[in-house]
């Protein structure tokens, strides 16, 4: 298995895990990976950035929906 394949597998696992902290840590780790070409590093980092953005947006939508459900017909007590 090539280094790029290993990195891609780690990125897949981090995305599937869904932990923003884990994805951010891998993003930083990839910044220092001298074995990857600049293009390959960028591609893998972009996959992580996209997953982080989607996860953050989804989390915000869930929070807004939760707040709306809690405040129907009144205020939070």
Task: List the main descriptive attributes of the protein structure presented here.
mainly alpha, DUF2526 family protein
Can you walk through the features of this model?
There is one protein chain. With 77 residues, the protein is an all-alpha fold. The protein has one domain. The protein is built from three helices and no strands. α1 runs antiparallel to α2 and α2 packs antiparallel against α3. The longest helix has 33 residues. The mean pLDDT is 88.
| Percentage of residues in DSSP E strands | under 5%
Count of runs of 4 or more consecutive helical residues: 3
Structural class: mainly alpha
Look at the structure and give the mean pLDDT. Answer: 88
Shape: rod-shaped
Biggest sheet: strands, sense, closure?
Answer: none
* Domain count: 1
Radius of gyration: 17 Å
List the helices and strands and how they pair.
Blueprint: H1 3-17, H2 20-31, H3 38-70
Helix pairs in contact: 1-2, 1-3, 2-3
Quick structural summary:
Helix content is 78%, strand content 0%. It has 77 residues and is mainly α.
